[in-house]
Amino acid sequence: xxxxxxxxxxxxxxxxxxxxxxxxxxxxxxxxxxxxxxxxxxxxxxxxxxxxxxxxxxxxxxxxxxxxxxxxxxxxxxxxxxxxxxxxxxxxxxxxxxxxxxxxxxxxxxxxxxxxxxxxxxxxxxxxxxxxxxxxxxxxxxxxxxxxxxxxxxxxxxxxxxxxxxxxxxxxxxxxxxxxxxxxxxxxxxxxxxxxxxxxxxxxxxxxxxxxxxxxxxxxxxxxxxxxxxxxxxxxxxxxxxxxxxxxxxxxxxxxxxxxxxxxxxxxxxxxxxxxxxxxxxxxxxxxxxxxxxxxxxxxxxxxxxxxxxxxxxxxxxxxxxxxxxxxxxxxxxxxxxxxxxxxxxxxxxxxxxxxxxxxxxxxxxxxxxxx
Length: 372
Fold this sequence. Notes:
By secondary structure, this protein is an all-alpha fold. It is built from twelve helices and no strands. The two termini are 34 Å apart.
């Protein structure tokens, strides 16, 4: 029999204990909508399904944003514990990454209907998202270096979340740039490359540390099972960003002194994208093996399970883009397989999340443990 509703740990717990982890749900749902829209083979109702998922994600993001703002305004004493918590603070990067999926959906679904007005709105939202992404990439590492308590044996790939946010924004720019005026497109492309370089260079450093930690201290405990997938995220997003920015550069810089460099960027984007996709494939296989091992240990559900979805979805999107640029059907088949796997994982994690909401189990912020 299903368990009855469980009382929350305290009144208004869904506000006081609301954590940035919830925005990982908008990341996973948003990328799922984009994957459905990008499938190389069409099926009846595909557009409606993709747009419906995007609208659902829009509602989720709006709800989560209101809850998070309510926590910051009503329970101000909880801000410092969240920022100083070595895990909770990392999920601040999930906020701009979730917003980036909404901006992409706005371009895909709203642009054809609303035209220039929608693209202008998406452009303004993108610059706001870029500021949030850079802010998380600066603030959280600074707190790590000065205030938080960390150790190599406690390191997990969750450290990647705040610094990958600029890379996600850079990849998002590739979808918007073709719909902008040349001057605006050039500004966004330059900013995209700057954020791509800022994020990917740091991500490679952290992935190296993650490999070292795994070799010395083996896998983290089951509470951090989904973090095994997180290194796939910057590799896949780096691939997608390099492909889309390089694809857009020649048109944006046509007739300027950077035209030759833009043509070079397109070729480099494809070669570099293939290299990053290969690195992502290695990590995908390893993450699947790690997950199989965790499943045998009966890992308990937590919001971190949404970490299974976004890296997988971005890798599928990068695979679709490689299919469009190379014309190789193998990428279409692989991308579609990844999309089916994502659908299964998304449905499973969504069901478990709804169950956790019903029983109040997900409204217990670790950073407030023991607090009155």
